[in-house]
Design goal:
This protein is α/β, with parallel strands linked by helices. It contains twelve helices and 17 strands. It starts with a strand and ends with a helix.
């Protein structure tokens, strides 16, 4: 008899497995349909001995000391400030757009005050802000929108920004200074030995039984458990009773090049050219020293593994029906990006999992993260 069957060995499932086993003495069966733990954060050494992220780059960043301290039990960290370039008009310029981006594009020498004046002149205010196009055009005008956002969004989502909720492009900041970091969080780092090693340390407990390459429905009648924690697609759990929730998927093309460096940057975005959206060179992320280098090209597509919930009003309405059904389903707890149909960063998923652990055990947040055995 297990206390909990946890479906999905990504961040949400693994954090809850660790907390329930080590922090509450519960017996946990953790299952995943893939052949590995770590979910989309899974990394591994390829045939050339280079540490790569199978499902595209995962950069850890958070403003939560609680989340960072919790994960620090299972990994040392490599400090890393993520910087991204965009290929626009034959140049590589900083993204998110900042003072250097505009000066380089237009051959200007603006200071922060001049940048504010420039943006005020080109902005086309829209009210209310309903779509992703509204957000960008209101903040930086139509020309920068066309150069950086429209093509990228069309590739990424298969939809024009005018068809997507404002939240999509609202995630990307606009800076009037020269800060070229992609994130500005208090804690920015990469697991020193990789994400997979961190997950292995997290799940190393005698109360955790791990089963891979198995669908949770296949073991339903063979294993006894009291409650379920489900981190997969919520519509899948209910056999798509109200229809399928739309997701955007990705195809990854990995390459290894037998030279020390390939593109000179960690990530280069391609808003307008080519079918792929970005190229990541992993050695910049991991700090690995190796005579060769590996990169991955990302090709968005409509079908495949679910990665990104598509933020449109009709999809939100459909999810609301599943949310109500989930809330009425006793003994099953839904947590994580797929189970709650929302795009979360990794730290947000960890925080959500810790919050659920607190509810399950009646512990306050600080107590929930501090219990060890």
């Amino acid at each position: 008899m297990f206390d909990y069957l946890i479906v999905g060995a990504g961040f949400a499932g693994s954090v809850l497995a660790e907390r329930l086993a080590r922090g509450a003495g519960k017996r946990v069966l953790l299952v995943d349909k893939r052949m590995h733990i770590g979910g989309n954060a899974y990394d591994f050494y390829n045939e050339h001995g280079i540490l790569v992220h199978r499902y595209g780059p995962h950069i850890f960043h958070t403003n939560s000391a609680e989340v960072f301290d919790y994960l620090s039990r299972f990994t040392a960290w490599r400090e890393y400030q993520h910087r991204v370039k965009a290929s626009v008009d034959g140049m590589l310029v900083p993204i998110p757009i900042n003072l250097d981006t505009v000066n380089q594009l237009y051959g200007l020498q603006l200071d922060p005050a001049g940048m504010k004046e420039f943006l005020a002149q080109v902005a086309e205010p829209v009210s209310p802000l309903v779509t992703s196009e509204d957000v960008v055009v209101s903040g930086m005008g139509r020309e920068l929108y066309e150069k950086f956002f429209r093509g990228y969004t069309r590739k990424q989502w298969g939809l024009d920004p005018s068809e997507l909720d404002a939240q999509v492009t609202a995630r990307v900041p606009l800076r009037v200074n020269r800060d070229c970091r992609y994130f500005t969080d208090s804690f920015q780092a990469m697991p020193f030995a990789g994400y997979t090693r961190m997950f292995e340390n997290m799940l190393d407990h005698p109360n955790i039984k791990l089963m891979l390459n198995v669908d949770f429905r296949e073991i339903g009648g063979q294993v006894k458990y009291q409650e379920i924690i489900f981190t997969g697609p919520v519509d899948e759990y209910f056999d798509h009773r109200f229809g399928k929730l739309p997701y955007r998927s990705l195809e990854f093309r990995h390459e290894t090049h037998h030279r020390p460096d390939f593109q000179g940057h960690a990530v280069i975005n391609y808003p307008n050219d080519y079918a792929f959206t970005r190229v990541t060179e992993f050695k910049y992320l991991t700090g690995q020293v190796h005579p060769s280098t590996s990169v991955v090209y990302e090709y968005p597509k409509a079908e495949g593994d679910p990665y990104y919930p598509i933020p449109r009003p009709a999809n939100a309405d459909l999810y609301r029906r599943y949310k109500e059904l989930a809330a009425a389903t006793e003994g099953v707890h839904f947590v994580g990006r797929l189970a709650t149909y929302k795009y979360y960063n990794m730290d947000q998923v960890v925080a959500q999992a810790l919050q659920l652990f607190g509810r399950l055990t009646g512990l306050k947040r600080q107590e929930a993260t501090s219990l060890r055995s």
